[in-house]
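Re: the 858-residue chain
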Amino acid sequence: MKYKPQDIEKKWQAKWDETGVFRCPDELSAPKYYCLEMFPYPSGRIHMGHVRVYTIGDLLARFKRTRGYQVFHPVGWDAFGLPAENAAVRHKTHPAKWTWENIAFMRDQLRQMGFSYDWDREIATCSPDYYRWEQLFFLWMMKDGVAYRKRATLNWCDECQTVLANEQVNRDGTCFIHDHTPVKQKELDQWFFAITRYVEELLEGHNELAGGWPENILEMQRNWIGRSEGAEIIFPLASGEGSITVFTTRPDTLYGATFMSMAPEHPMVMEFARQSGREKEVGEFVERVSRQDRETRTGEEQVKEGVFTGGYCVNPVTGSRIPVYAANFVLYEYGTGAVMAVPAHDQRDFEFARKYNLPVVVVIQPEGEPLDDATMRAAHEGPGKMIRSGEFDGADNEEGKKAVTRYLESRGSGHATVQYRLRDWGVSRQRYWGCPIPVIHCEACGIVPVPEKDLPVILPEDIPYSRERGNPLASVEEWICVPCPECGKPARRETDTFDTFVESSWYFLRYIDPKNDKAPLDPEKMRRFAPVDQYVGGVEHACMHLIYARFFHKYLRDKGLAPGNEPFLRLLSQGMVCMQTSECPKHGWRYSEEVDEKGLCRQCGEKVIVGRSMKMSKSKRNVVEPSELIARYGADTARVFVLFAAPPERDLDWSEQGVEGAFRFLSRIYRLVVQRADAVASARLAWDDSGEVRRIRQVTHQTLLKVTGDIEERFHFNTAIAAIMEMVNSLYLVEDAAWSEPATAGALKEAVEILLHMLAPFAPHIAEELWVEIGGKDLLCTRRWPEADAAVAREEQVEVPIQVNGKIRAKITVSPDASQEEVGALVMAEPRVREHLQGKTVRKTIYVPSKLFSIVAN
């Protein structure tokens, strides 16, 4: 009767493969359910953080299959990009070799977990069969003006040796992969996708996603897109031709603009400095600020500092000549790179003005004591009446925003506009391991798209790889040198490759049609299976992958390939798996086996510092690989642990004790069912109406109602497992004789069968094994989910607490069907309630059926 998962799990995995039970046909025979987890980077080994997300998805896929859906549950590999390339560099091997070896290893790891994937649809984004279609999309985008090339100042990581999108820069200004490497600004010719063409649709789509996506993810996207209504205002230069354009949400404060703040990187800064003879002073400031990260520059605690450039511009409504400063808190990539400074009504400008003795002019007067320019200690950023604002004096400042904008429009000095924080997506990367960008550079013809008939442009995988020379593609002459498709003269291929987020922006559609070699996607198949019904993945992808995929889907919709407006109808954003870290002062992060029983580093003998629990990461050496866990406890134990230890949206702290607890729970089920297997197999599903039978069936159907709702409606997988545990406890309390007694054996047979049905999505191997033990002939995963009988589950009597003025004073037992009047009569007859109501008048009573009766009295 000992539970030995190693004897069970491989057998059932082979059986599922042999029967093809998880393969999804192209034709629909039932309502479809497309369940998908964000696919993994094959840059290392799968750890328990990965296991958590894939187990959640597998639970939902298995459950929905038993609910009568044709489940589409594919798997693949996000195989291109920096994570794989950087790992290959660390291990001194070739990215292609490293990637394909890891795919093979990680595929075996996933299979060991018993996930219900349709492996026939497996894709790897580094395969030409996949990226040829990505190159075709790019050519379409070029024709449509959605893909374009321009020179731009962009984020550059020295360690990655490539450009990063804004979304790939951490808030502290470091690289999203190398969080110790500051990101620099570098000017390069780059390819972009015009994601801003879809910016309003990306925002409006949140209405369609509300209820299916976590609100915090939608809010993060709204903030990242950053829609602001305001005015664009032109400030002419005080001398010579030209002007400075700014965007502001506060045109009502324009009369109080007393200086201009400009990003140090703005090209006009050094031009002003050269013209005024201040080049040395300004240049030193610009150089110093350029080394600061954006978080430091824009943080609330950061000292606001700047330098006068020597330039002046003119306030378009006052005619005043105002100085132009380079300021550390203005970022070139946001807005126009210049900000009109209104120190009386913006705290940041106020601090700057006081520091550099610049004028402060109040133009919005709040109710109450008048503000004084000279004595005010902080900016007034709230509402009020406009003053010192010419014809707008006395106007409410909210109305003033519109009125001043109309005035500027009439004079050609500005106009109303909407601005977004979101910028077009820079997709060029100066790296080797990525999808080649299908264009050719010809001196005579310029940029020439590769003809569609010549796709794919295949990335050469047989070249020597080294990061020391920069992008290795740049030195492969036989690959680079090609004739121009238009004039036939010698030309050169583009050596930049696509950002890896391009591959992950449409993979969910290719799963539907993975073997099509005539077209990227079959529209008819797309209509059958797209969009994804349930997507599972981490919150860290809220402002990168999830925005990019939404944009890509909308573009492919416009090309007639993708159905609907959104790619993912529902999103479950799981928390991280965290584990305590250990750090040696000399050798850095240590695995647990690298620390002895005294807490000393085995390598040097130094005392190891035990740190806080952090996200599992190979760089922190706090990773647990599932292979180790499976060898000791089995895959079902790993699945139950990650589902039970915390609600799916919360972070989960790794616990060896928790894993052992999950194993003991499964062992208890195994012993219970094996011990009673003969009795259960021989019993008939028939029963009388005795009290014992009613009790057994009530617990069974109450548990079934709870587990069904927790999976289907609430995603409370941990409380579903807890309910199953309670049911197992109740079955252990049943007397031995009841298992063979005809009066109760049928109810117990029903209980065990339903128990195994409920267990199956969580721990499928042991559930299949025990199903056979009790006489099951077919695969449990192919059977329909049992329906709970609400009448059987219903309690005959419930205990209701009674509150008097917020405090529990008594409890009564009532029928669940009792009306508020009937319950109220019993409450008022309760001695302890009458005692607490003595001398008081009842003002209000509230009855929450079967839960609470509340009295308000004074």
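DSSP finds 27 helices and 33 strands in the chain.
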